Amino acid sequence: MLTVRMKKSAKRRIREMERELGKEMQADIERWRGRVVKFIGGAWAAIHGLKPNVGISLAESALARKQLARVVMAMVDATLEKFPHLKNFTMPGAGGGEVDLGLHCWDGKHYMECEDKVESYVEYMYEAVGLEDTELKYSSIAKETIEVLKNKAREPARYEQLVIAFDNCGFDWRTLKCGEHDPEKLVYHYIPHPIDVDLLSEALAKGELTEGFVKAHIPKTLEAFRQWVGDKWIKLLEIVGYILYPQPWKKAFLLVDADSRGQGDTGKSTFIQLLELVLGRENYSNVSLQALRTLRGAFRP
To answer: In this structure, are 102 and 213 located in the same domain?
Structure first.
């Protein structure tokens, strides 16, 4: 009778959740809810079949652990369906062995850290089948589920250091070509814009970036750069190229007013905003000169 009530409670909770969810999440539940509800019913019956204080046989205890393990594995299966190509990348540790870098998800373009997202999904699953109405603790189930996921998804990190994922392709700086996004390649860098592949091919075929070519394709940008720096406009384009190369350069750029009075309104802030727009919010940080002067004196004259 207890198992029947458990299943009814779980299904009632699912119906309530489905009314609040979109089609995508409803489809997730449909794929796995029957399996999870069945496992949870068996686990719950096993738990309540145990006596609270004494007289618990080893067989009964083993049965409870086995049923709970099946619940966790059902959670694992559901999570792997939700997050295809889930990886737990590792790297060599300082003292030997491998160090986990945490769970990473493939979003169709590149890998990104997603352990918090996976934990939120496990919590959602926990609530969707009514486990919050039972004595099965979320913290225990979540901890075991994440641990199993990490063990199943563990593999060495082999970064594609010179590949940048754009919205429509992955650009390889070694070959100067754009290829299809591939979950078998660990690409970490992502620029949230498409790249004009035809225009890129045309520019590379010319072998040299001429003023005529730039004027034909980005005339407003060229006009603005000329207003700011005159015939040194190509230096600003070079800076754009430097920030898109996914390896460190031993270079620094300082934007100053040509007028020694420093009255401003010469394009410095606008150019920086352009760089930020090109990179995307996740790929840059800002530190003021005043803040740099307070970093343990590292930048003091």
So the answer is: no
